[in-house]
């Protein structure tokens, strides 16, 4: 078994509470079916020729443009206005730091594993997510899709992260909550843990590293 020397972690949904919880709360508060949001996203895609979330997370459109496009599509879909300008504050208000997993990553950093953060994110949201965890104390490499112009599962963003961390893919352990992102990492030769819940992820991390469960 190849020795793991580096940990590459996602942020949202791994180092935070599940993202779907935030979406569900907003959906309930606004009486906004998630299916309607999905259809509105598709409408914007058809109008612009590009998926708006992908464009946002690659830094090619602004948060304001993204929200405005969705608001227009939702107005057409629902026949009423949805206050999408409130979405970022409401979304982030629901997220909590996953302190239990964060403690595991701190312990791995202290055990001399190389540490990288690889996140699909939004340029304007950087102050929000950085305020939730001590990013620079834990991670020596941070790769944010919005600043590098590509997003998971594009192999190039994994390759960039691997290059910056200076460890071969086969010696990297990747942690993410999205199956498609896990698949891409494994295709590049990385070991991977598909985060579903914290105890499961911690147990799998320890198993892959050959470390005691209480480490």
Automatic annotation (TrEMBL):
Q: Which PANTHER family match?
A: HAD FAMILY PHOSPHATASE, HYDROLASE, PUTATIVE (AFU_ORTHOLOGUE AFUA_1G12880)-RELATED
Name used for this protein in its record: HAD family phosphatase
Return the Pfam families for the record: Hydrolase
> From which domain of life does this come?
Bacteria
| Source species | Svornostia abyssi
- List the InterPro entries: ACAD10-like, HAD-like_sf, HAD-SF_hydro_IA, HAD_sf, PGP-like_dom2
Q: Which Gene3D superfamilies match?
A: HAD superfamily/HAD-like, Putative phosphatase, domain 2
């Amino acid at each position: 078994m190849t020795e793991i020397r580096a940990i590459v972690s996602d942020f949202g949904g791994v180092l935070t509470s599940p993202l779907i919880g935030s979406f569900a709360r907003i959906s309930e508060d606004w009486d906004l079916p998630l299916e309607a949001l999905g259809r509105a996203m598709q409408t914007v895609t058809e109008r612009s020729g590009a998926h708006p979330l992908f464009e946002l997370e690659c830094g090619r459109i602004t948060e304001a443009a993204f929200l405005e496009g969705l608001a227009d599509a939702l107005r057409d879909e629902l026949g009423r206005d949805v206050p999408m300008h409130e979405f970022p504050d409401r979304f982030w208000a629901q997220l909590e730091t996953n302190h239990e997993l964060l403690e595991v990553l701190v312990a791995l950093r202290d055990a001399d594993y190389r540490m990288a953060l690889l996140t699909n994110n939004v340029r304007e949201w950087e102050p929000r997510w950085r305020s939730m965890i001590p990013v620079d104390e834990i991670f020596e490499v941070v790769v944010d899709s919005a600043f590098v112009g590509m997003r998971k599962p594009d192999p190039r963003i994994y390759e960039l992260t691997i290059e910056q961390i200076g460890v071969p893919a086969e010696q990297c352990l990747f942690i993410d909550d999205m199956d498609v992102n896990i698949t891409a990492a494994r295709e590049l030769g990385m070991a991977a843990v598909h985060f579903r819940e914290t105890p499961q992820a911690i147990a799998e991390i320890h198993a892959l590293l050959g470390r005691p469960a209480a480490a």
